[in-house]
Amino acid sequence: MLDPTTRNIKFLPGVGEQRATMLNRELDIHSLYDLLYYFPYKYIDRSKVFKVSELNGQMQHIQLLGEIRSFEEMGEGASRRLVAHFTDGTAFVDLVWFRGIKFVKNKLHLNKRYVVFGKPSMFNGRVNIAHPDVDDAALVKLDGMGLQPYYNTTEKMKRSGLNSNAIAKLVGNLFQLLTHEMQESLSPDIIAKHGLMSLDKALRAIHFPKSLKELQAAQYRLKFEELFFIQLNILNYSRDRQKRYVGHRFPKVGEMFNRFYHENLPFELTAAQKRVVREIRNDVNSNRQMNRLLQGDVGSGKTLVALMSMLLAKDNGYQACLLVPTEILAEQHHATLCRMLGNLPVRVELLTGSTKQKERTPIFEGLENGEVDILVGTHAVLEDNVQFHNLGIVVIDEQHRFGVAQRAKMWAKNNIPPHVLVMTATPIPRTLAMTLYGDLDVSVIDELPPGRKPITTTHIFRNRADSLYTFIRRQIDEGRQAYVVYPLISESEKLDLQNLEDGYKKLCNIFCDYKLSKLHGKMKPKEKEEEMQRFAKGETQILVSTTVIEVGVDVPNASVMVIENAERFGLSQLHQLRGRVGRGASQSYCVLVTDYKLSEDTRKRMEIMTSSNDGFEIAEADLKLRGPGDMEGTQQSGIAFDLKIANLARDEQLLQYVREIARGVLDADPTHTSPNYRVIWERLRTIKNMRNWNWGAIS
Ligand code: ADP
Ligand code: MG
User: Fold this and answer.
1) Of all protein residues, whose CA lies closest to atom 13 belonging to ligand 1?
2) Does the N terminus or the C terminus of the chain have fewer Cβ atoms within 10 A?
3) Does residue 203 carry a pLDDT above 90?
4) Nearest atom (ligand 1) to Cα of 445
5) Rounded to two decimals, what is the model's pTM?
6) Which domains are seen in the chain, by residue range?
7) Given strand 374-377, what is the order of strands in its sheet?
């Protein structure tokens, strides 16, 4: 029997070498299977006929039934065109051809009934249809045409005749070949219980639906299947890992933890912090390796949770490592931990790309003989020459900067993999978290420390900047400080820097009686640190910066965050930046500055930012606006988001539903041997063996 997953597309009738190359390159279609799963992006109902008098320039493709009354050739050169005056008795519309004029004129006749199909547009105040399909009405059976599929193609493809219609023909040829019913991929009980269409029928119907109802049933079946196998795979993987990896046990809550908690902690933990610490203690005392995702909005106090988890390791004779994405953040975390620990005998070291060789030697020694208790560092820690004596826990701050691959690298630093706590302030919408981190347990700090006032966010246009400067001045005079952030605008670092420099100069002029700091990624680490410190100590009042301050930086006295060119930022980034203020007890402000002319999308983002302070709400909105492929972190996550039909933003309910079904399958058939589920396991293997298998991180 023909196996579409392996049969090369070039053997399909109508394809051949040349078109195969085009399909490979432009659409990543290599096998018959790839084409089978290349679904239409829309359908047009060809049983509906519009009246000419109903037409307007905003319509999508429509169909008309009528006659051509006269032809007219107009224009010169590039604008030379043939116009056919077409009517159905309600009004006239111009059908226009710029190419193949002679051919069209020969083929079409006056006063004969035609079905015209095309997209109306406006030209010189009149509706016309350029290059429509025109068919003899006597030969077209309109009510039999049903929904016509439309496939995305590229300009290159269109130029060589591989347009949507041509793809539809190829798919038709493919179904001619598939004479046997296609192999079902879900078990009979699941199909029956959830009222699913068979795979064979669904694949045929998704390309050539006979009715809207049939199309919807096919879409549901295929979405179901797609999400089901993703969830089955990830749940299976995480069960497997739990079975395989024993974890270090930290049974003791010992001296360091207790002394820190009772003597050093300057404030009460929030209820949410307490709960999370409890969850972590349960994990690390369970004999299994912990893999926990800690989500907490900016300022919710994750660092403290990290520190207490690391002290648990110390108390049980293990080392800990705190991984952060930037040097500034590493330095700041290092300083914070040292300050919080005070005189407790805990050795904390810092390792970044710019740690000098001379300083490295004692750190490396201390790591290998176990004298260093906590290592704070950047990517530099991942290098192979960094070896621990006995690494018990790794905390990864601001996860979205670290991919799954890096997580795995840390695991390999011990025979028994260390516990892993991943912290993120960019809340990941539930659907995405379930798909990306289905193997992680999730804790949430859903409470801010007491006394925080919600940040007031406003959006202003650049021409109102004067009042903004007055406002900043007032805040500074009250003893507060301000950030002004510039985005990366161009591809070129030089130009971006120019943008920052210009802004800095302008602000220096306006605020000539104050001191300003400047910070950007191209500065030497030492300079960065110095500038940051000057601001943190209150020696400067305004910090002009690029987005290097985006994550983690903590200056509680800063109360104003101005974001220049706010239209250039995504929602989660705006929220992150805003989180740099509102960390002390005073009222804080975030001001988004944009051009006057905004796209619809930007307007929405500004609206969401000014109306919500809730990171989760913002992340959900972001997912809806941008789609999962653009969400921060997903590119590095190892899952390329080219889901073929499901949409994580829209199909959340279905995702949760199939997750439970997948869980049920695993519970019922943990050894993958039940005859009932044979087709399912076979299918999972096939998907994972496919060339473009892209859930790579969790294979
Ligand atoms: P984030 O979750 O964004 O990493 P941090 O850990 O930087 O937040 O904490 C933000 C600020 O809140 C810090 O200055 C920290 O000392 C303070 N903080 C943390 N927990 C509490 C608490 N329970 N009560 C009061 N302040 C707290
Ligand atoms: Mg933090």
Assistant:
1) 301
2) N
3) yes
4) 2
5) 0.63
6) 47-145 (2.40.50.140), 212-244+650-697 (no CATH), 255-445 (3.40.50.300), 456-612 (3.40.50.300)
7) 348-351, 374-377, 319-323, 391-397, 419-424, 291-296, 441-445
